[in-house]
């Protein structure tokens, strides 16, 4: 990257990959009012031929630039921040070539940054010559000196190859800037405030410009510690990477010695991850620590120890924020278990510890009190590990088999560690847990050897981690006022980027959306099967191809009780089983008809498995695939019950598929209800997507709901095929009518016999001692206006399990974007506008683009008169939406009048047609009447 300073008007130009970006402050008469609120920077790309001394541009040549850090406003002045010194410190994933490591992902430590003014040339001379005197002036006299000192303190890191803010399991195998922007955890990005406007600007530029821009113009930095060390092993190559991410969620209060805020955020929140990479495996384990999440403050802050603590709110008023804190953690990490390290050396610390336990018990979170010092923990680690043994086993670890391309372990929970005024003790606990988890994993993985050399590197990394975290913490605690001022400058900076040309192009593109998007119907097969721990001994065609003449575009297969779980193992997933089932289904799909299928995604949680298969024609349209799992068995600790979910976009339409196995037993309705709520609450996809945020949701599985009738009556009605009579007593039907579970979900009419429980290998319902009542335990529900269910049935001839496989087919109306047509249209619009503006001055261009006149023929006049979102003139039209409607007020009626609609239909004789879509306002292709005879 190169940097130029323009003189008239004052501008800063960054050049990289043959792409030149000019930053210039806007201060015209129209902007004066706006300037007082949020300063505005005009951004545009310029050709190489303009960057000459004759045009007033001077290159700053004695700096090696490593990327744009962002734009910052300090005391009303604007600056372009660039990274000018780096050191390579990490490479978490790599490949081996000729007995040497070739890095595919690189992490760099920031050593120095510079801030170039968009307002004045006063400091320009300091960048022309590198000297100790100039450096001192940049730190002590430059307005951004405190920020330069902050970002150069050795605790900031960035990567160009992947998302540095997320743990390894959230990384895609192939890096893209779009993926990073969509999925990053902004709580761990310390320059998020400096790059937000740049990200928004990037979303408006053409695809070909993005390819140049994504090199060095967008940098995301985390704070904490990051380092990879190679382990000197004779037979194989291995690396250990240790990452500690300090959260910026509390902004200027990030290192305060106090407790939680109303939004559930706490200071000193750190996520620590250990990553071990070998030729065969990639291993990852995550722990978190932070201040005690209660409302408290400390006094007598002159000394590091002996502080007095005081709870500032009652525990009753604390509980809501406490719950919010742990809900946020659970949505990202899964099950949470608290490790409380507060040593009750005083009455105030004891009250804090007791309050912590009270709130944890009320929330239903396991809490383990450990009051050992760091020395005792190191000398007798078995005492700590004995207390945490169950959590370590149950939570598991992320393990990726590189040779087979599958995850054979998932971490489904996290230890949340708390201490008072100490970095050392949480670091010691995390180091001991990390070592124990690695040794347990090595016992279950062939090829991962925990040698003395390996442990030496492991412990050395943890020592360095402690040094940097303690150093950062101590500096902030010693000078809290000083650092709060620096953080206030960083987190309160506001700048508006103004790019009228790209904004206008984006606006024209929106108006012509119909020319590059179209609705397309795709067909989806969904199947669920409880295997009862058996391997299929018969053909599955009658299940997967209920209509042998049809091949669907997409197949989603959910399996339960894939294998009997063996207790006492930390890595509870058998990769060979998942591979085996993928091979079985792909073999079935690719042996019939002309369509060929691939498996873009599959995942397993214990005995529950979900697989997605897509035809080759539709495969390129599948993007942003994300998965999540949630255990519900034995209070969320075991994976014999739970859910596996996948989220993805088919072009512009979001789909979510889930398979779940809920609590068994006739009387366990409440537990099933609880399982459902747990899954809905905890399944999350980056960036914070929930199940209900999708256009189409299909939820399948063994829901285990039973029929509330006598066994003999059920069997008699089954033999008479009077399924409607049975369905009235179906627990799931009753729960859905009552609004207890699956609100807004639809289920097609059931016209097949109960699918549970059979004597395996027969067509006979259970004849064992328990004589289970036949029931529809296996179900498929759907939600979303884009979906229309076509069939619902079961394969009665597949009899090796005690369940029968169930299937459903759907037609989904997806919105498809023709990316090539969109890119071509964008290019044409850009060319036409640029041609009309070519001979104008900069001020004339801005005036024309803001004027609202039609620059291109054929665009609706109303569409171009509304000003772009980021127009700085302050003349934006007020086109506010009406307030949302409620039960008391309907905006389309006016004056809050209520409306009643009377339907002249006899409800005793007629019913709503179940073949019609639930939403009466969508267009349908059928002539079905609204009401049909009962």
From TrEMBL:
It comes from the Eukaryota. One of its GO terms (molecular function) is phosphatidylinositol-4,5-bisphosphate 5-phosphatase activity. Transmembrane segments: none annotated. It is found in: Cytoplasm. SUPFAM superfamilies: DNase I-like. Residues 147-475 form the SAC domain. Keywords: Cytoplasm, Endocytosis, Hydrolase, Protein transport, Transport. SMART domains: IPPc. This is phosphoinositide 5-phosphatase.
């Amino acid at each position: 990257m190169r940097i130029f300073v323009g003189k008239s008007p004052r501008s800063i130009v960054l050049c990289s990959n043959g792409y030149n970006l000019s930053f210039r402050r806007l201060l015209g008469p129209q902007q004066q009012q706006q300037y007082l609120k949020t300063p505005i920077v005009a951004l545009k790309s310029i050709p190489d031929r303009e960057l000459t001394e004759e045009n007033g541009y001077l290159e700053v040549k004695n700096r090696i630039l490593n990327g744009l850090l962002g734009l910052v406003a300090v005391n009303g002045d604007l600056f372009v921040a660039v990274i000018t010194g780096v050191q390579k410190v990490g490479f978490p994933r790599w490949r081996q070539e000729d007995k040497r490591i070739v890095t595919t992902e690189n992490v760099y430590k920031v050593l120095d940054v510079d801030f170039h003014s968009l307002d004045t040339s006063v400091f320009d001379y300091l960048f022309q010559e590198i000297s100790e005197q100039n450096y001192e002036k940049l730190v002590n006299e430059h307005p951004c000196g405190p920020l330069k000192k902050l970002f150069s303190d050795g605790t900031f890191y960035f990567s160009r190859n992947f998302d540095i803010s997320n743990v390894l399991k959230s990384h895609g195998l192939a890096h893209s800037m779009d993926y990073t922007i969509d999925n990053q955890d902004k709580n761990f990005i310390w320059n998020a405030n400096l790059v937000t406007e740049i990200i928004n600007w990037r979303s408006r530029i053409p695809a070909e410009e993005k390819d140049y821009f994504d090199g060095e113009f967008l940098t995301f930095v985390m704070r904490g510690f990051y380092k990879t060390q190679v382990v000197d092993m004779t037979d194989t190559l291995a690396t250990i990477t240790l990452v500690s991410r300090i959260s910026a969620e509390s902004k200027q209060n990030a290192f305060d010695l106090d407790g939680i805020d109303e939004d559930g955020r706490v200071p000193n929140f750190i996520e620590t991850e250990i990553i071990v990479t070998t030729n065969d495996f990639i291993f990852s384990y995550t722990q978190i620590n932070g201040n005690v999440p209660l409302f408290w403050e400390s006094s007598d802050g002159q000394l590091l120890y002996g502080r007095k603590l005081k709870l500032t709110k009652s525990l009753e008023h604390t509980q809501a924020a406490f719950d919010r804190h742990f809900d946020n953690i659970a949505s990202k990490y899964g099950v949470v278990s608290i490790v409380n390290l507060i040593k009750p050396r005083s009455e105030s610390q004891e009250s804090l510890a007791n309050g912590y336990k009270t709130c944890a018990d009320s929330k239903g979170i396991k809490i383990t009190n450990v009051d050992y010092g760091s020395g005792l923990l190191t000398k007798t680690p078995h005492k700590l590990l004995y207390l945490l043994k169950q959590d370590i086993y149950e939570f598991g670890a992320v393990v990726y088999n590189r040779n087979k391309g599958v995850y054979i372990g998932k971490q489904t929970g996290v230890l949340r560690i708390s201490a008072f005024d100490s970095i050392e003790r949480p670091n010691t606990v995390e180091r001991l847990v990390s070592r124990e988890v690695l040794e347990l994993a090595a016992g279950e993985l062939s090829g991962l050897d925990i040698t003395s050399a390996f442990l030496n590197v492991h412990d050395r990394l943890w020592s360095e981690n402690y040094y940097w975290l303690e150093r950062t913490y101590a500096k902030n605690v010693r000078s809290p006022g000083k650092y709060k001022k620096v953080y206030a400058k960083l987190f309160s900076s506001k700048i508006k980027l103004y790019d009228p040309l790209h904004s206008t192009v984006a606006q024209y593109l929106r108006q012509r959306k119909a020319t590059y998007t179209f609705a397309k119907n795709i067909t989806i097969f969904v199947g669920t099967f409880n295997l009862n721990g058996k391997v299929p001994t018969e053909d599955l065609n009658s299940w997967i191809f209920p209509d042998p003449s049809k091949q669907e575009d997409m197949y989603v297969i959910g399996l339960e009780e894939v294998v009997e779980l063996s207790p006492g193992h930390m890595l509870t997933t058998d990769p060979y089983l998942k591979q085996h089932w993928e091979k079985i289904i792909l073999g079935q799909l690719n042996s019939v008809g002309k369509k060929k299928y691939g498996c873009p995604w599959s995942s397993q949680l214990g005995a529950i498995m979900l697989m997605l298969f897509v035809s080759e024609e539709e495969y390129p349209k599948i993007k942003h695939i994300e998965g999540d799992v949630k255990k519900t068995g034995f209070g969320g600790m075991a994976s014999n019950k739970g859910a596996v979910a996948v989220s993805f976009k088919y072009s512009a339409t979001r789909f979510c598929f889930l398979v779940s196995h809920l609590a068994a037993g006739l009387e366990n309705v409440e537990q099933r209800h609880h399982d459902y709520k747990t899954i809905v609450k905890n399944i999350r996809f980056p960036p914070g997507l929930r199940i209900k945020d999708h256009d189409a949701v299909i939820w399948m599985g063994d829901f285990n709901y039973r029929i509330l009738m006598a066994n003999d009556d059920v069997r008699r009605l089954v033999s008479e095929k009077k399924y409607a009579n049975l369905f009235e007593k179906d627990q799931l039907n009753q729960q859905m009518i009552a609004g207890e579970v699956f609100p807004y979900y639809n289920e097609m009419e059931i016209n097949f016999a109960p699918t549970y429980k059979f004597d395996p290998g027969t067509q006979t319902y259970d004849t064992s001692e328990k004589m289970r009542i036949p029931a529809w335990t296996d179900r498929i529900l759907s939600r979303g206006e884009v979906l229309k269910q076509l069939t619902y049935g079961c394969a009665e001839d597949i009899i090796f399990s005690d369940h029968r496989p169930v299937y459903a087919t759907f037609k989904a109306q997806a919105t498809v974007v023709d990316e090539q047509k969109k890119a071509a249209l964008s290019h044409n619009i850009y060319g036409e506008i640029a041609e009309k503006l070519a001979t104008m001055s900069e001020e004339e261009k801005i005036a024309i683009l803001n004027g609202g006149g039609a620059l291109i023929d054929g665009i609706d006049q109303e569409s171009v008169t509304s000003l772009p979102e980021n127009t700085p003139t302050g003349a934006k039209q007020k086109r506010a939406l009406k307030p949302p409607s409620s039960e008391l007020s309907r905006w389309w009626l006016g004056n809050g009048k209520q409306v009643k609609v009377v339907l002249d239909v006899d409800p005793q004789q007629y019913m709503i047609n179940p073949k019609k879509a639930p939403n009466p306002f969508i267009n349908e292709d059928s002539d079905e009447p609204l009401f049909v005879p009962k």
